[in-house]
């Protein structure tokens, strides 16, 4: 066996070697981790509890009649179980996370330390305002940074996520239309939009009319003009769009929309590409949500927490929802009810019971303050540079649907380079797992067949990008060389092999059931 300089088998021999079976099913530190219900004992508990004395239960008909049937484990067993599960997660802390249109960027630990400071981590929404003046000041400062970066007039901090922010912006637009005494039931949505855009419009009762994309992946202002009418309330445009391209005609589109009496909503999910480079207010945008959990580094994924503040232009500022922070002579003030409104303030209502995610505010502001204006601009520039570096490294093997042209913070490929290989986009993604990478976004945006959308973010070094590019090049060449089995059988080295994903989605098993006795299973 040939060994390399660190005493490990060389790659070809390692790849060709058959896996050796083990008694435990484990492979070194890769532990085959069963479910808690499979390793726990149902007749014991991990803590010592005295038998309760005589008491009169007050649950009545709700009294449990069967054993609780929860697995009992010792403290070390429980800790080991969850540590092992955590080691199976893929995260930005373990490798490059190339999901396009998701901005899985590095989260500095400084942000986490700030969010855990006393007086912030333990703040309660029902505290008297007199005890949270520092928190209100922090929200005001965060809002000031967001307004400065976007060139907008007002900000609503309360939305808890991107889609929630979209809803907030479109509710402000709907309120503005109604305040003018008009009925405008239509919203224009480009084909390359995020799926939440048409969903948000439909949720609010609008009829969605799609706007086709040009051959170069962008929106044609003439196509927008043809669809504009007194019936149109707004357009929902993502810029940079989901094809990784900047909408170069955005100013002309905004002008046409405003001339028709409609409003311009911008999906800000891709704001990471233009922070410090362009102010959306100067582009003609009326409302845009900002994902603090994407653009400004706060944790992303796992269902939350998130925060999706919305910035509003002078056309919509008066409709910002309650509660909001108002700057007054004596300092920032949290306006919580209609009784506190000043002249000209006509909020459409409120989005949440309280204000929002304080931890997200702290993390985002810590990121902004530590980077400064110049650092935020550099982050955008580096994100775009890294995406174009990946594009340049793959363009001779991968196929680009809109030609070999520079992209923004994410680069889009399609699957035509796999034609005739017998390898699908999904097969390629599964093979990336064996190489130690989370796959890029697959099959999105929908305007491109077999889309592969890669967003490396600004935090990746040249070395990590070089290895990533070399890995994808190797996979592409192996697919073209006819090594189909390598892809169809992938992933081989993940904790679980490939699922029948269609069947799993249609008939999910949501509850663990004890296995049937052997004799019963054999019948």
UniProtKB/TrEMBL annotation:
<dbReference type="InterPro" id="IPR000192">
    <property type="entry name" value="Aminotrans_V_dom"/>
</dbReference>
<feature type="domain" description="Aminotransferase class V">
    <location>
        <begin position="187"/>
        <end position="301"/>
    </location>
</feature>
<dbReference type="GO" id="GO:0019464">
    <property type="term" value="P:glycine decarboxylation via glycine cleavage system"/>
</dbReference>
<dbReference type="GO" id="GO:0016594">
    <property type="term" value="F:glycine binding"/>
</dbReference>
<comment type="function">
    <text>The glycine cleavage system catalyzes the degradation of glycine. The P protein binds the alpha-amino group of glycine through its pyridoxal phosphate cofactor; CO(2) is released and the remaining methylamine moiety is then transferred to the lipoamide cofactor of the H protein.</text>
</comment>
<keyword id="KW-0560">Oxidoreductase</keyword>
<dbReference type="InterPro" id="IPR020581">
    <property type="entry name" value="GDC_P"/>
</dbReference>
<protein>
    <recommendedName>
        <fullName>glycine dehydrogenase (aminomethyl-transferring)</fullName>
        <ecNumber>1.4.4.2</ecNumber>
    </recommendedName>
</protein>
<feature type="domain" description="Glycine dehydrogenase C-terminal">
    <location>
        <begin position="379"/>
        <end position="480"/>
    </location>
</feature>
<dbReference type="InterPro" id="IPR015421">
    <property type="entry name" value="PyrdxlP-dep_Trfase_major"/>
</dbReference>
<keyword id="KW-0663">Pyridoxal phosphate</keyword>
<feature type="region of interest" description="Disordered">
    <location>
        <begin position="490"/>
        <end position="523"/>
    </location>
</feature>
<dbReference type="InterPro" id="IPR015422">
    <property type="entry name" value="PyrdxlP-dep_Trfase_small"/>
</dbReference>
<dbReference type="GO" id="GO:0030170">
    <property type="term" value="F:pyridoxal phosphate binding"/>
</dbReference>
<dbReference type="GO" id="GO:0004375">
    <property type="term" value="F:glycine dehydrogenase (decarboxylating) activity"/>
</dbReference>
<dbReference type="GO" id="GO:0005829">
    <property type="term" value="C:cytosol"/>
</dbReference>
<dbReference type="Pfam" id="PF00266">
    <property type="entry name" value="Aminotran_5"/>
</dbReference>
<dbReference type="Pfam" id="PF21478">
    <property type="entry name" value="GcvP2_C"/>
</dbReference>
<dbReference type="InterPro" id="IPR015424">
    <property type="entry name" value="PyrdxlP-dep_Trfase"/>
</dbReference>
<dbReference type="InterPro" id="IPR049316">
    <property type="entry name" value="GDC-P_C"/>
</dbReference>
<dbReference type="GO" id="GO:0005960">
    <property type="term" value="C:glycine cleavage complex"/>
</dbReference>
